[in-house]
Design a protein that fits this description.
The chain is mostly helical. The protein has 18 helices and seven strands. Among the domains are: about 170 residues, no CATH class; about 45 residues; about 120 residues, Arc Repressor Mutant, subunit A (Orthogonal Bundle). The chain has a three-stranded antiparallel sheet. Strands 1-2 form a two-stranded antiparallel ribbon. Strand 6 and strand 7 form a beta hairpin. Keywords: Metal-binding, Nucleus, Transcription, Transcription regulation, Zinc, Zinc-finger. This is Transcriptional adapter 2.
Length: about 525
């Protein structure tokens, strides 16, 4: 016999008869015999063989079955025998399921029947078998007048309704097992939802050695004393003998000179207040432990992997900002705290954007196209500033390189190459400094130079201060090449700034580094 449990979730056409539960197939041709007559072998050791009438007439012998074995015909018992809405086939499957699955396993029996729920199976067995007057047998002297077609239609509709209810029922939830994700939080036991080291883990140290004497406060002095029991009470005698025997057994190896136990003394008022204060402190620590545990479990803080994935999506500034807000989480619910964090992060985003727009307006930028061009040029300047020390290191590594070429001639070639490449580029448009900060601190000549070189007045003032301080420190002996090393910007911009400061008398040089001499030297560079 080939049997299997059909799933009630599989859809079937409405024209076909719906069946769920245990199914029977022919062991020879594998045809479905669930709703048809089948021939069942009755020989010992071969009771599980089922054949369709065609294979039985042809003398098929699957497995150990022989054609001369005894047999019995199993028909279609889809008619009521005990109650009006239970068929005989369902009654047989009920008894078969109880013998296979055990008494009380109603869910497994209902799954085996396939057309009933666990509640219906339990109710039917209780009413027809347990409450029967002929218990353990049901009452069989019943005559039921039921229309066969109506009975089959009700059964079909019941199966369809059962299938629909199973579709709407949510699937089994995955148990909360000790997966690797939860073990990333050290000391957490997911199955017990507890921690090996709780918050305020040392709270019990306050009261572990706490003992009370005779308490006379809080109504203790009004407690009645123990009444003396009569000497002839046999139970007391037995108890005393038992206690003495246990005491002798425990203290058999003890010394005879043991000191007697000191009787309890009355508890003083100050000592009582101190111990009660310790108990209050212990209770407060327990409340803090319960609150901390509830926050961790309710907000899913043990799911370390999910938290890390969410933090990776945020910037460093946002992560630092959220860490500052975490102490406020215990003052709000989980949803309120998430809304608060989202709102504050959005506020920070707006502030950063407003700051960028204000910076663009300070730079004289009024359109987004100019802002994009400004950002590209700013990134290029930052990249050149980072690459400047590397290029300078290669250019001044040796004063006399191999091959007899002097360092001065090589610097001259590099300067000519840079000058030729700079001349081939299209000059940038002058920078609009109408709203620039510290513009009033520059002379007209300096303002014109800043606009031509596209340098902000604030930056120009910083460069000017650096060159003036260095020139004074060296006593006026500051050359153009040395000025380029002090200011890490484009060498041509540094040269023009140096020339302007020398020409206007801001840089007072010594005669040996006069402007004409240094200019000639600049040409040789």
């Amino acid at each position: 016999m080939t049997t299997k449990v059909r799933s009630p979730e599989k859809s079937a056409p409405e024209s076909e008869e719906v069946h769920v539960g245990e199914a029977y197939n022919c062991d020879a041709c594998n045809v479905d015999l669930t709703r048809n007559v089948r021939i069942k072998c009755a020989a010992v050791g071969c009771e599980e063989v089922d054949l369709c009438p065609t294979c039985f007439c042809a003398g098929k012998e699957p497995d150990q079955h022989k054609a001369w074995h005894d047999y019995r015909v199993v028909g279609r018992h889809s008619y009521p025998i005990l109650v009006e809405d239970w068929g005989a086939d369902e009654e047989l499957q009920l008894l078969d399921g109880l013998s296979k699955c055990g008494m009380g396993n109603w869910s497994a029996v209902a799954e085996l029947i396939g057309t009933r729920t666990a509640e219906e199976v339990e109710q039917h067995y209780t009413e027809c078998y347990i409450n029967s007057l002929d218990w353990p047998l049901p009452r069989l002297e019943r005559e039921l007048d039921v229309d066969y077609e109506a009975f089959q239609e009700r059964k079909k509709q019941r199966i369809i309704n059962l299938r629909e209810s199973l579709k709407k029922k949510p699937g089994p939830t995955q148990p909360f097992v000790s997966g690797p994700t939860n073990h990333e939080v050290g000391g957490f036991m997911p199955g017990r939802r507890e921690f090996e080291h709780e918050a305020e883990n040392e709270a019990e140290d306050l009261v572990k050695d706490l003992e009370f004497g005779i308490v006379l406060d809080h109504g203790g002095d009004q407690q009645p004393d123990d009444e003396e029991k009569p000497e002839g009470d046999s139970m007391d005698v037995d108890v005393e003998v038992k206690v003495e025997n246990e005491s002798d057994t425990k203290n058999s190896n003890a010394d005879d000179d043991d000191e007697p136990q000191i009787p309890a003394v009355p508890e003083s008022s100050d000592s009582m207040q101190l111990k009660l204060a310790l108990l209050d402190m212990y209770n407060e620590k327990l409340d803090a432990r319960i609150e901390a545990k509830a926050i961790v479990l309710e907000r899913g803080l043990t799911d370390h992997k999910r938290i890390q994935q969410a933090e990776r999506k945020r910037s460093k500034e946002d992560r630092e900002f959220i860490n500052k807000l975490k102490p406020l989480a215990r003052l709000q619910t989980s949803d309120d705290f998430e809304n608060l964090v989202a709102g504050l992060l959005y506020e920070n985003t707006l502030k950063r954007r407003i700051s960028e727009l204000q910076h663009y307006r300070t730079m004289g930028i009024t359109t987004f196209t100019e802002a994009e061009r400004y950002d590209r040029e700013r990134l290029a300047r930052d990249r050149d500033r980072l690459m400047g020390p590397i290029r300078n290191g290669f250019g001044h590594r040796s004063s006399v390189p191999p091959g007899g070429e002097s360092g001065q001639s090589r610097v001259k070639d590099e300067s000519n190459l840079a000058r030729s490449s700079a001349g081939s580029r299209r000059p940038a448009a002058p920078l609009n400094l109408a709203n620039a900060q510290s513009l009033h601190l520059l002379t007209p000549a300096e303002q014109t130079l800043c606009a031509a070189l596209r340098i902000l007045p604030v930056h120009f003032l910083g460069i000017k201060e650096t060159l003036v301080r260095e020139c004074v420190r060296r006593g006026g002996r500051l050359r153009r090449r040395e000025a380029r090393e002090l200011v890490r910007i484009d060498v041509h911009k540094t040269g023009q700034i140096w020339d302007l400061l020398v020409r206007t008398g801001v840089l007072k040089l010594t005669p040996d580094v006069a402007p004409a001499t240094d200019t000639a030297a600049a040409g040789s560079e």
